[in-house]
Amino acid sequence: MTTTDTTGKFLLAPLPYDMRALTPYISEETLLYHHDRHTAAYVNKLNELAGGTLYEGMALEDIIRQAEGPLFNNAAQAWNHEFYFATLSPAPQRMPSGRLLEAVNATFGDTDSLRQNMTQAAVALFGSGWVWLAADDRGALSIVSKPNAGNPLTDGLHPLLAIDVWEHAYYIDYRNARADGVKALWQVIDWKAVCKRYDEHNL
Ligand code: MN
C-alpha cells in the first residue's frame, strides 16, 4: 500500500479513475477536495511527522500498528483513503462472488443484510470515523466501527471494505444527509476489489 519515492517519502496515489467518473453518486468537486486536498494533506503531514524519526522508511502498515497521536492519525488517514478510493469504480462488480460471497451469506444472511448493517453502523457512528468490513486470520467477517482515523489493522484484522463517514466524504453532495451519501456509495463499491483482498490473504 502507498508507494514511496527514492528517499522513502510516501507519495499520494493518483485516483484510479477520472474525477468525473463516479457521478452522479460522488461528484467531481467532492473527489477534488477529498483526494487532492484532504488526502494530499494527510500524506504531506505523514511525511513531515515521520521524517527524521525511527518511523522514517518504515512500511506504512507498521507505522499504523506502532505509532500514536498525530503520526498515527495521518498515517492511518493516508492508508485509509488510498484503500477507500481503490474500492470504488465507475463500472463496479455489484455483488461479492466466490469465497467472500459464501462468507457473507454465512455471516450476514445475504449481501443486502450486510449492506444494511454497515449502513446502520455508518449512520450510528458519532462524529468522524470509518466503518469497516474486516476479516480475521481464519476468514471470519466482522463489521468494525472506528472513530477518527481508526483502522482494523491495529486489532490484527484484515481490512476488506471501508466507508468513510467523515463529513468531507459527503457534505458537498449530500449536506448533512449521511445516510444518502452511504446509499450512493454502495452504487460505486466494486466488490471485485473487495473479493480480491479476501482471496489475497488466503482467508
Ligand atoms: Mn475522507
What do these coordinates show?
- With 203 residues, this protein is mostly helical.
- The protein is 47% helix and 10% strand.
- Bound molecules: manganese (II) ion.
- Manganese (II) ion binds next to helix 1.
**Poorly predicted runs:** none
Q: What's the β-strand tally?
A: 3
How far is it from the N-terminal to the C-terminal residue, by CA? 19 Å
Percentage beta strand: 5-15%
Give the rounded overall mean pLDDT. 96
If strands are numbered along the chain, what order do they take across the biggest sheet?
2-1-3
SSE string: HHHHHEEEHHH
Q: Looking at the structure, what is the overall shape?
A: globular
Bound molecules: manganese (II) ion
How is the secondary structure organized here?
Elements: H1 28-50, H2 60-66, H3 69-87, H4 98-108, H5 111-124, E1 129-135, E2 141-147, E3 158-164, H6 171-174, H7 178-185, H8 191-200
Antiparallel strand pairs: 1-2, 1-3
Helix pairs in contact: 1-3, 2-3, 4-8, 5-7
The structure holds manganese (II) ion.
